[in-house]
Amino acid sequence: MELVSISPTYKLMQRIAYFFSKIYSSKLNPIYYLGAITIFLLIIDVISGIYLFIFYNVDPKHAYDSVEAISSSFLGNLMRGLHRYSSDGLILFAILHMLHMIFTDRFRMFRWVAWVSGVGTLLIFIIIGLSGYLLVWDERAQLTGLLTAKFFSVIPVFGHALMSAFLGTDLQNLGGLFRILLFGHIAVTILLVFTLWIHVMRISRPRLFPPKYLMILLTAYLTVIAVVFPAKSDPPADLGKIPFGMSIDWFYLMGFPFFKVFSLPVNWAIFIGFFGLLTVFPWLIKGRRNPPAEVLEDKCEGCQQCFIDCPYEAIYMKRTGKDKEKAFVIANKCAGCGICIGSCNYFANRIDTVPYEKILEEVSQSSPEILVFRCPFSAKVEEGKDLKVITLPCIGAVNTLFMKDFLKYAKGVLLVSCDGPDCYFREGVQWTEERYLRERRPKLLKSLEGERIWILETPYAKDISRELTSLREFLKEKKTGRDVRILSANKTNHILASLILFIPFLSFYPLTTHRMDFYPKDKAIAVLTFKYRSSPVRKAETVYSKLKHMQAIQNIAVERSPIEVSFIVNGKEILKKKYNPRGLRKDSSIYVYEEFMLKPGTYSFKLEVRELAGPKRKHTYKLAKKLKPSTSLAITYDESKGFFTLGGK
């Protein structure tokens, strides 16, 4: 039966990964631990974030000063740097992990749950990063908040309310928003535990942490970067003016440059289209999977070894009598790897892609010098006169009990596997090596000459003619022994390994401090930003509760008047728009936020606000102002003061 074959992108990724295996060794290759590295950086991010939270003041009046106070001490500065750069690192490695899954075809079919939950986790990472930047409350926070609020203003429930929080005088509204942001920052971080659980729930023994060697390197890199390039704030936010530019973090704010090019609806289309495409990606590309395994119930002795070894929790144990249980396969979760075939002492598991009797018959007829078992993702071996090649779905399907029969007809056996931790079915290589080293059931029989069996970890891209020659020469010497020989890239070049992994960390500082303007610096901006509570149109005239302490002292407005806003610049009306009160009953305040780009110069402004119902009150505000380049003039409102201006200097 034809097996799932290796794709061109997989071959490319194997070439890249094997290059790193020669430097790091296959056991320490960072490409094989991209997801685990992401989780490790998340842990550093959480620990440093808890430290910052202890000293942070959520009041927007003091938020910036509290952040600067934290940065004034060595430990605080270090923790802030660790928090910043570990956040950037987890985005980088999460994206690399996602690309690795795509290139190696590990996102479809039985893996779709991990993929979809991974997309959700990436989105949560970005949300956490955005909320974290807002809490610093510098110019980057203010402009990020303003642009984000514009993005959400397309949704009616938000409207102009969020934008007005980032420019104007309503500190109470901003303070409430800050508390929501801080709570959300913590709550969504906790939510990550749930999404990560979903991400790995179909995986047995998920690889949650990279090897200690990599963890030490990563921690050292983050510490060095945090000390040499400390995380810095932009100038403090000013509610009286719009920042024209900010330092942009390309890991979290990569979508913001689109605001300079496209309209808000187009940006929404890009956002929904991108994450929507990622979510449904596993179903857009057709694929074929290996047939599922099955358990022969009459042969199963309930030893649980296949249940323990299954990498995808596709086998469960079911009680079939008193003190008896049998293994059963969940077909839609089964990857068709055949690892359960290699796990069974009783030949109770079967799969069409591992026909043991047929293979034994072919081997007995050919009596090759070397019998080669390989998986489709390992080095390609050409069959010859003295070489019999059998391709199985995974090298983990070669049961040690098979060797007693195979070694009767072949002088030696070569098991060619994937490159260690890069096993397509996760644990096939590990279980194979442990079984043949007699460390895991079913163990290689003690009576067999283990030296006649070699295990070679190598990717599809590698030529193994040298290893085959070595095995032939070894067999001619007719040496005997008990130990199976394992050949893999197991040497680490510590100097190169340290330098290469440090390169992406060097990019963190320039990619988080790059300055970008979002408004043309040769222009000025006039802004209308205010909250207006219009007159009631209807009031409640009945008591809502019989409980005295819940009765209203005065009548409550149940509907307020809409307003019409006219804005006239140098005698020309550039805005005439109706605004309705917020709320389902239209009984809440009205929020207005409008921006107007102007050339530098002297202008006369006239603002008219008319209520369209009820008493039909009218407000008129006039002023003349000279606007310089890169300045903003904000016209705002306070019930006690009326209309007045901010900025414009």
Could you give a quick summary of the protein structure above?
The chain is an alpha/beta fold and 649 residues long. Helix content is 40%, strand content 19%.
Describe the structure.
It is a single chain. This protein is of the alpha/beta class. The chain has four domains: 50-284, Cytochrome Bc1 Complex, Chain C; 289-353, Alpha-Beta Plaits, CATH 3.30.70.20; 356-487, no CATH class; 524-647. Helices cover 40% and strands 19% of the residues. The chain is built from 18 helices and 21 strands. The chain has a five-stranded parallel beta sheet with strand order 7-6-8-9-10, with helices on both faces. Strands 17-12-20-21 form a four-stranded mixed beta sheet. Helix 2 (34-55) packs antiparallel against helix 4, helix 2 (34-55) crosses helix 9 (212-228) and helix 9 packs across helix 17. The longest helix is centred in the first third of the chain and has 30 residues, at 74-103. It is elongated, with a radius of gyration of 33 Å. The termini are far apart. The mean pLDDT is 92.
What's the arrangement of secondary structure elements?
Elements: H1 8-24, H2 34-55, H3 63-71, H4 74-103, H5 112-136, H6 139-152, H7 161-165, H8 171-200, H9 212-228, E1 245-248, H10 264-284, E2 294-295, H11 305-309, E3 315-321, E4 324-329, H12 339-343, E5 349-350, H13 356-366, E6 370-374, E7 387-391, H14 403-409, E8 412-417, H15 428-436, E9 453-457, H16 465-476, E10 485-487, H17 494-506, H18 508-513, E11 514-517, E12 524-532, E13 536-539, E14 557-560, E15 563-569, E16 572-579, E17 590-598, E18 601-611, E19 618-627, E20 632-638, E21 642-647
Parallel strand pairs: 6-7, 6-8, 8-9, 9-10, 12-20
Antiparallel strand pairs: 1-11, 2-5, 3-4, 12-17, 13-14, 15-16, 15-18, 18-19, 20-21
